[in-house]
Amino acid sequence: MSSSSKKLKPTTHDRVAARRRWKLVRSHVRLGRWAAVGASTASSCVRLATRDIFATALASPHPAWRTTVGQIRAHLLSLFGADHCLLHISTPDAGLLEFDGHHLVPSVRPTRGGLLTRAIATRHPVHVPSVSTSAFQPAIDGVEGHFLRSYVAVPFPTATLTVPFAVELFNPTVGALVIDDWLRVLTDDDDSLRHPLAIYTHLAARLAAAAFLHPPLPHDPPPPSSAEMQMHRATTLLHAIAGVDRCRVYAVDHAMHTLWACFPTTALLLGPTSLAATVASTKQPAIIVTWSPDPRWSPGMDHTGDLDVASLLCLPLLGNATAAPSVGVAQLVQSTRGFSSADVVACEILCEHVGAALATFLASEVVARAAAQTRMLSQLSALPWPADGSGDNLMPVVAAMEAIGRQFMHADDCRIVLHGATHHLPPGVSPVAAAPCLTQCVFDVGVAHSVLHSHQPVNVPYTTLADGSVGALLVVPVLDTDGLDVLGVVCCAHKAFHAVRPYFDMHDELLGRGLARIVSLGLMRHAHQRHAHALVLFLLRMASAPTLRELVDDMDRSAADILHADRVQLCLVHNGALVMGGGGRIHDGLPTAVAASGEPLFLLAGDAPSHPEFHAAVDGASVLALPILSRDRTVLAVLHAVHGSKPFLPQDADTAQLLAAHTASTLERLAWDAIGHDGVAAALTQTQLRLIETCATTAASVPPSPPFTPPGSGHDGDGPDVLAPLRTLAFNPFDESKDSLVTHVLHIFHGFHLHTHFRIGLHTLKRFVVAVKDQYRNVPYHNFLHAFTTLHVTFVIVVEQPSALLELRDVLALYVGAMCHDMNHNGRTNDFHIKTRTATALLYNDQSVLENMHAAHCFDTLRRPGHNVLENASSADYMYIRKSIIRVILATDMQFHAPMVEQMTRRFQRGTFQPETDKELLLNAIVHSADIANPTLPTPLHARWSTELMREFNAQYEEEIALGVPPNAYMSAKIDSPDQARMNIGFIDVFCLPLWRIMDSFLDGLGPCIDNIDRNRQYWAARAADVT
């Protein structure tokens, strides 16, 4: 290659010239870039640069010093069109440092005695328009590699550091007049001069110093939310750069006319008359200085009473759309000095970012709360209301709804207060009169009146509640489907401490309305289900009513709920008058008119008083009166329903017609039963009239219910002849038919007059007993004979006790539990079901598998129409009896035997028995003792039961072998073998005798049981010796 083709190596002078040309081009490119953004003036360029440095500072929690200082240097080069710029930053650890755009090194220029040294010492800037003057010394003030024409040195002193920041500009091209004007403003004490370039350099100096000082955060670290983190960073910069001692961000809720403190999170509210509210509405900032009176401000206003306020700055936060209403207000406080022009600009720029972050935060909150609303409504819709309407206690469902309301509405207290029945207010109660019953919530009667009258929610962000506490309150009415009646209220009070807002806003009100609507729909559905369920049960009872007397009594007792009436009576036509169920006679009023005409009257909407036959003592404001006709149109009776304050609904009239038709059908059936199926149809009406006459003449003399006395005292209705065979343990069920055993069960229930006290219909009781009998399987041991024996022994125990020991509801629970304790038993043990993983074991999670199944079958049978022996018990008695039945059945699981005996040993002492705490244990012990009472029976009967049990054990053992599961060895014992004798001896010694000795020590009349146990043990011991 020739020498002419080689590139010549550039000289040092060429490199310096090229670098100068490149820097000049770069400066022009920067200025062009600022102009392209839209800055048509120098002021716009400076404002863009100011926003730029703050945007960079907010991009990370602690931006690196190189990023901050490098950006400031780049701005200065562009704004002044300088060739070179040196920044001098004073740090507490390393002293004065110099940054040239690449390296940060200790600064030696201030020690040379040049122009920079003079500027720092005098704390005044130095401007040399031309370096040809004697003031500029190139060896001291110049920089290597730069041809200098002009020079500027500017110190930025503060009160804490003499000169924390200084700038040297070389060859600025903006012109001497611009620079002189800038330097004049920097040294002017009049802070009213708002020169953009001066403000920028002041803020840049503070930001550069802050990058090295790392000021402590003024607040605890916020949650890791991007919007809250942005507000937190802005607050940190306000503290470091503008000297703000406290920054509080209020979000504006335009719908509630309220401002709430969202950062830092505090439970503070501002009303529409506050200074912050004025700033939010006008979108104009407000500056308050305490040494200058201002009519807009008074000390302690807007929650500033805990601060020393020297100056207060309120800035509107406009979010991302400046034309939209304010999203919030920033409240900035300085405690020692006033806000300077630079401080105000810094606060305005930073609060633009705060407003954008607040708008993002509020938007994300809207999305999150919409999702929460969907989840809340989904959970509320999934709550299990009583499917058949038979459950009277809605508290579990209401409590679940209250818990969901507290969770999603972030309320400390959420209550659903219901009043009235189903879809009507209580009879004769107006909304105003119902208000006191709603004050179970934590609000006063005035609020209740407002809700009940207006049917609109009451939402108060901050108020004094009835219990004396102060907080937010939201009350939403629960309206019926027509919006006419208030069924109750949803009351939420006291926002939870973790809630984003310290009050209930419109979204919470929307959630409250949704909750109230679902409560209303649930109540209406439950009411309709209850109505349909009650109607079906009533019609079934009517179809099986054995006598007209029972039909009349049932109508008087049950039809009012079905028709939503105050009173319903079946009045029998007899001797020109109407005879009521209690024996009273009606000679006037609308039912008499219906009996005479044979035409129904439907006066639904309170217009009964206008009828000429109306009688105030008999009728009400709304009346349904329907004749009960025979086949030849003879009026036999009148169905009379009355409501005093509410109108009847059209569906109530339809239901009344259905009841009247079924009543006529039942009367006809009773007449056919009386004359026989071979009778003559012509005699049907006469027979019905005779039945009515018999019932009417005996209505006034119904015998009272017999008192509670133990059977056999000479006062019980069944008489000693019926119960005599059942008083002895020698009663042998193997000698009786199953139908005969059913009769004995009925005698046991009648012995204590349970059917009278709990109003159990005779046919209902018999249907229940027969249904229970039919559900016992044909297995050797756990069959209906074993159930009867358990009931029989329970009866023997109970009949010997003093009447003060047990209540009638205890006796009923004992009898039902004993009779049902092994329902549907398949002759296999719990262990077998668990080992073979049967469906029953899986259903009950291997916990008391059979016992849980028996209890479930018991109450499933009670749910059948016409089988519920507890349907007329009071709510309190029903819950007590139900719990007791379940407990006594579960207590028959042998795994609870040892703990039961241990508890009985400690608690069953004569004279120390506590009914409140020991009654449950006593009931469980009675049924469990009766369940394992075979050794207490006479020896022949006991031996028979032992044989049947061995047969069942042997069958299970063989099945376990066939299925390949580990068998229970003791079940392989053969009948009449030594193993059988040893098994019985062991059972008596370990299980039976210890339990029955405790029972005998506490209860009366169990001596024969202990004697039989001793005799049976001797029997098995002799058998074991004989076989051996």
TrEMBL record:
EC number, UniProt record: 3.1.4.-
Name of the protein: Phosphodiesterase
Residue span, PDEase domain: 698-1027
UniProt-annotated catalytic positions: 782 (proton donor)
InterPro entries for the chain: GAF, GAF-like_dom_sf, PDEase, PDEase_catalytic_dom, PDEase_catalytic_dom_sf, PDEase_CS
Pfam families for this protein: GAF, PDEase_I
Gene3D superfamilies: 3'5'-cyclic nucleotide phosphodiesterase, catalytic domain (1.10.1300.10), 3.30.450.40
Cofactor binding annotation: Binds 2 divalent metal cations per subunit. Site 1 may preferentially bind zinc ions, while site 2 has a preference for magnesium and/or manganese ions.
GO molecular function, one term: metal ion binding
Alphabetical list of PROSITE patterns matching this protein: PDEASE_I_1, PDEASE_I_2
UniProt record similarity statement: Belongs to the cyclic nucleotide phosphodiesterase family.
GO BP, sorted A to Z: signal transduction
UniProt KW keywords: Hydrolase, Metal-binding
Extent of the signal sequence: none
Cofactors required: a divalent metal cation
Residues annotated as binding Zn(2+) 2: 822
Keyword ATP-binding: no
PANTHER family referenced in this protein's UniProt entry, alphabetically: CYCLIC NUCLEOTIDE PHOSPHODIESTERASE (PTHR11347)
Residue positions binding Zn(2+) 1: 786, 821-822, 931
